[in-house]
Amino acid sequence: AFADGTSVVTNLLVGADGAWSRVRPLLSGAAPEYVGMSFVETCLLDADTRHPATAKAVGDGAMFALAPGKAIQAHRESGGTLHAYVALRRPREWFDGIGLPGAAGAARLAREFDGWAPELTALITDADTAPVLRPLYSLPAAHRWERVPGVTLLGDAAHLMPPSGEGANLAMYDGAELGTALAAHPGDVEAALTAYERDLFPRSAAEAADASRLHALMFGDDAPHGLIRMFTGQQ
Hints:
Blueprint: E1 13-15, E2 33-44, H1 47-50, H2 52-58, E3 62-67, E4 70-77, E5 81-89, H3 92-96, H4 103-111, H5 118-125, E6 132-138, E7 151-153, H6 156-159, H7 167-184, H8 189-219, H9 225-231
Parallel strand pairs: 1-7
Antiparallel strand pairs: 2-5, 2-6, 3-4, 4-5
Helix pairs in contact: 2-5, 7-8, 8-9
């Protein structure tokens, strides 16, 4: 039933409802687990005029300042906006206790980057938007389920993983593959879902493994050198 008490009957239910899917429990007992790190999202507006030193540091594309267990990452968007994600490996409760999204919370977060270049820490202290906490969660890399008639998952509901730049792409690909399977098996939802999930599970596991490797390269004990080796073909 929906929140307003209404209900519908269908022969196909697709859980495309994200990390905290309400549909997933119909198929799986798996629940997202905190990966030990959170991002804090900020923006600097009209940066070339109002924050020129930071705009120069970020450049015309993306900037990654990485260290073990922490990072300041930013990219340029239209209108001179700098969109940043500040990464820090801390328990989930630590972030709850520092006062985000208020100014005191931002100041406390910035202290974790004492000694970093001020044009980088300005992405925390001089943000023009309230900081938004983005805790990182994942499902087991090999998450799968037994076939349940008429129900399946796609996107983060099926394969939540650390950010890798592929999340939206994977969700759209899942949707396209599900549609293709349904079109290939007209009138036989179960055959379509069986075919869809047969390909979904190994594809998702491989992508989750790649995401975990990238997470380790960016924020592991060897950061930033692992990511540099990857970009230079030495990894």
